[in-house]
Specification:
This protein has 632 residues and is mainly beta. The chain is built from eleven helices and 23 strands. It is 10% helix and 19% strand.
C-alpha cells in the first residue's frame, strides 16, 4: 500500500499530490506551468476542448481524504478553446492561489485540481502534482515533483539516493523500462534502489508495488496514464480508468490494486493461503519486467502461478462439496505431468470423451488445417510457417462437451522451477516449438520422437488498446483466440467464471450455471473494464455513452442502479438487452428495427461489418445489430 514519509533537511518539504494527465492535452484542459513565490502560486493552462468553458482551481488536503475543498478560486469564465494548441502565450489562462487563500502546513499532502465548471458532472479537467520547498516563511519555491530529486522520494525511504532513482530520463539508457533490456541497461534504476530502498522484498524505491507503479503511471512522466480523466476514447479501451468517482451520482467501481486486499477477495475464486493469500496489487496482473510480445501491455503470462500448480483429479470417493481447499486448487492447476502423446492419425476418435482438462495430441497437417485468414484457427499454424505433411503436437482443451485445439502459451523455466514445459525425447534439431501458441511442429520423425510431455500452461493475450481486437473478427487488428486468452487471464483469479457451456453446472470453488465466457466473441472484457468504471464511461444497450448519443451529458441515465457497478461497461443489465433483446418478445428495441429493415447506422460494435458489408460473429453466424461493443 502507499504510505507517505517525509524527509526534513535544511530544505523543508511540502508535497502537493495529484495527477497530471498527459492524455488530456487534446481533450480537456492542460496545465502549462506552475510558478510561485511568497506572494502566491500561479497556474497557467490551456482549454484544449472544442468549446468555450468556465474553470476554477480547487485545493484539497489528505487530512479529510481530499473530500472537501479548502479553497476554490474565482471562476475564469468563457475561456476560449484551443483544440489544436500551439503553446503561444495568448492561449494560456492564469489562476493564482495565494498564501491567504490556503494556509499550507508541513507534513500535509495537498492536491490541486483544475475543474471544468461548465460541465460539473465531468468536473475534473486535470489534476497536478507539485512540491513546495520552504527555506523560510517569506521565500518559497515550487518544483514539479517528477523533475526534482528532493521531491521524487515522497513516499520512499527518505534516504539519499545518489542514483536519483525514479527521475524521468535517468533510467532510459540501455533498453525499455519493462523488458527488452540491453547489456548496458540502467533501467533497473527506474524502480529499484540497491542500498536505500523503501520496500524490502523487491528493493523498490517506493513503499509498495502500487506506489512504485503509480509514480510513473499517474500521468506525470509521459508513461501510460492509468488515472486518465474519462473521455469518449476511454469507452473503447480494455482497461477503463482508475480515476473514477464512487459517489451515488457515478457509482464507480475498480480493481482495488493498492495492496489493501488479498487475491482471495476475487469473486469466483478460492480462499487457500498458499494460492490466494497474496497481496492484490498492480503486479498481480502486470509483469514489470515484461511479458509476451510488445503488444500485451505487459500482462503477466501466469498471473496467479497456476502454471506451477500440478493438476490432480479428486481422490476416489471425494466430491467437490467435500474437497479441501488444496484439492480444489489442484483441480485448477495448469501443470500437467507425464502426459501421453495421443496419436490422432492412428485414432481420430481418441478425444471423443473426457480424459483430463488438457491433453496433448499429434496429427499430420493437411491443407484444411492452414489458413491465412486471421479470423480462422488455421492462421495460428500458418503464421508459424507450418507446412502440409508436417506433424504438430498440440494442446487440446475440454470444453465440457468436446476437446478443441488450445493455444495457451507453454511456460518454460528451468529444472528448479515448477512451471516448466518439457517434451521428453525431443530431438536437438528438426522440432520447432511455438511457445506463445502452445504447439510444436516438424517432420514426422522429429515429432514422433517425443514420447511424453510435461505441459505448463500460461496465457498470452494478443491485443491493442481497442477492445475490438479481442472479439471482432471484422476488425483489422483482430487475431483468432485473443478474446479466449483474455477470459482465461481474468479467470486466473475469477476462476469459476470461465465457462464454455451454460447448460452444465461449472466451477471449481462454487457450482452454478454460468454465461459463456470461453470464446473470443464472449470475452470477459466485452462486458467489463479491467481497471475501473463509473457512469461517465458506462454505456447503454445501443452502445451510446455520456459523451455521445441521444443521452449525452445525462449522468443520471448512465449511473448503475445496482449496489456495485462491478467494473461493467454497461449500465445496469443493459448489456443483456443489447444481445438478447432483438427477439420478437421484446417490444420497441431499436435493434429490432435494424433487423427488420435497412439502416445506415449499425448500433453495437459487435454488429460491425467488413469491407464487403458482411456482418461477422467471430467467423460464425452473422451478428445482429444492437450487440455490445464499440459504436463506430
Amino acid at each position: 500500500m502507499s504510505k507517505f514519509k517525509f524527509s526534513f533537511s535544511l530544505v523543508l518539504t511540502i508535497i502537493l499530490v495529484g495527477i497530471l494527465s498527459t492524455s488530456v492535452f487534446a481533450r480537456g484542459a492542460y496545465w502549462g506551468s506552475l510558478t510561485g513565490d511568497n506572494s502566491g502560486w500561479s497556474f497557467k493552462f490551456i482549454n484544449t476542448s472544442d468549446k468555450a468553458k468556465d474553470f476554477t482551481v480547487k485545493v484539497y488536503s489528505n487530512e479529510d481524504g481530499y473530500t472537501d475543498a479548502l479553497y476554490s478560486s474565482p471562476v475564469k469564465t468563457a475561456v476560449a478553446p484551443h483544440p489544436e494548441p500551439t503553446g503561444a502565450a495568448g492561449e494560456y489562462v492564469t489562476v493564482t492561489v495565494t498564501p491567504d487563500n490556503v494556509n499550507f502546513q508541513l507534513g500535509v499532502i495537498y492536491k490541486f485540481v483544475l475543474v471544468d465548471v461548465t460541465d460539473p458532472a465531468k468536473e475534473v479537467a486535470t489534476e497536478t502534482k507539485y512540491g513546495v520547498t520552504t527555506v523560510n516563511d517569506t521565500n518559497k519555491k515550487l518544483y514539479n515533483v517528477s523533475d526534482d530529486p528532493e521531491m521524487v522520494d515522497v513516499d520512499g525511504s527518505g534516504l539519499v539516493n545518489a542514483n536519483h532513482t525514479g527521475l524521468p530520463g535517468a533510467a532510459s539508457k540501455g533498453g525499455n523500462k519493462h523488458g527488452f533490456y540491453q547489456n548496458n541497461t540502467n533501467s533497473c534504476a527506474a524502480c529499484h534502489q540497491t542500498h536505500t530502498a523503501a520496500q524490502g522484498e523487491a528493493l523498490l524505491f517506493k513503499d509498495g508495488v502500487y506506489s512504485t507503479c503509480s509514480a510513473c503511471h499517474d500521468g506525470t512522466t509521459g508513461a501510460y496514464n492509468a488515472f486518465a480523466t474519462s473521455s469518449a476514447e476511454t469507452t473503447k479501451e480494455i482497461a477503463g480508468t482508475f480515476n473514477i468517482s464512487t459517489d451515488s451520482a457515478h457509482n464507480g467501481s475498480l480493481h482495488q490494486s493498492d495492496g489493501s486486499i488479498t487475491v482471495s477477495a476475487a469473486p469466483g475464486g478460492g480462499k487457500s493461503q498458499a494460492v490466494w493469500g497474496g497481496e492484490f496489487n498492480c503486479a498481480s496482473c502486470h509483469a514489470p519486467h515484461g511479458a509476451g510480445s510488445t503488444m500485451e501491455n505487459n500482462l503477466n503470462m501466469d498471473p496467479l502461478g497456476w502454471g506451477g500448480v500440478e493438476y490432480k483429479a479428486l481422490p476416489t470417493g471425494v466430491t467437490l462439496d467435500g474437497a479441501t481447499d488444496a484439492q480444489k486448487d489442484s483441480l485448477n492447476g495448469k501443470l500437467f505431468k507425464d502426459l501421453t502423446i495421443i496419436d490422432l492419425d492412428a485414432n481420430s476418435a481418441a478425444l471423443a470423451s473426457f480424459i483430463k482438462p488438457y491433453v496433448v495430441a499429434k496429427k499430420t497437417i493437411t491443407a484444411a488445417d492452414l489458413s491465412t485468414d486471421k479470423t480462422k484457427e488455421g492462421y495460428m499454424y500458418s503464421r508459424a510457417n507450418v507446412q502440409v505433411g508436417q506433424k504438430v503436437i498440440q494442446t487440446y482443451r475440454w470444453t465440457g462437451k468436446a476437446y478443441v485445439r488450445d493455444f495457451s502459451l507453454w511456460l518454460r523455466g528451468s529444472s528448479r522451477e515448477a512451471a516448466n514445459t518439457v517434451l521428453t525425447g525431443a530431438p536437438a534439431t528438426g522440432l520447432t516449438i511455438v511457445w506463445r501458441d502452445g504447439f510444436a511442429f516438424g517432420a514426422a520423425t522429429a515429432v514422433d520422437a517425443v514420447s511424453k510431455a510435461q505441459i505448463s500452461l500460461g496465457i498470452d493475450v494478443e491485443t491493442t488498446t481497442n477492445i475490438r481486437s479481442l472479439f471482432d473478427s471484422g476488425y483489422t487488428n483482430y487475431i483468432y483466440d485473443s478474446g479466449t486468452e483474455m477470459s482465461k487471464y481474468c479467470a486466473s483469479c475469477h476462476t469459476d467464471y470461465l465457462s464454455t457451456v451454460r447448460t452444465n453446472l461449472t466451477g471449481t470453488y462454487t457450482q452454478a450455471h454460468r454465461h459463456t465466457t470461453g470464446k473470443d466473441n464472449l470475452t470477459c472484457v466485452r462486458c467489463h473494464y479491467g481497471h475501473g468504471t463509473d457512469a461517465t464511461i458506462m454505456k447503454d444497450s445501443n452502445d451510446e455513452s455520456y459523451f455521445e448519443g441521444d443521452h449525452a451529458g445525462k449522468l443520471d441515465y448512465y449511473v448503475d442502479p445496482n449496489p456495485s457497478s462491478a467494473l461493467k461497461r454497461y449500465t445496469g443489465m443493459s448489456v443483456c438487452y443489447a444481445c438478447h433483446g432483438s427477439g420478437g418478445q421484446f417490444i420497441n428495441n431499436p435493434a429490432n428495427e435494424a433487423i427488420d429493415g435497412p439502416t445506415s447506422t449499425i448500433y453495437g460494435s459487435h454488429a460491425v461489418v467488413n469491407d464487403a458489408g458482411v456482418q461477422y460473429d467471430d467467423g460464425e453466424a452473422p451478428l445482429k445489430p444492437g450487440q455490445p461493443g464499440t459504436r463506430e
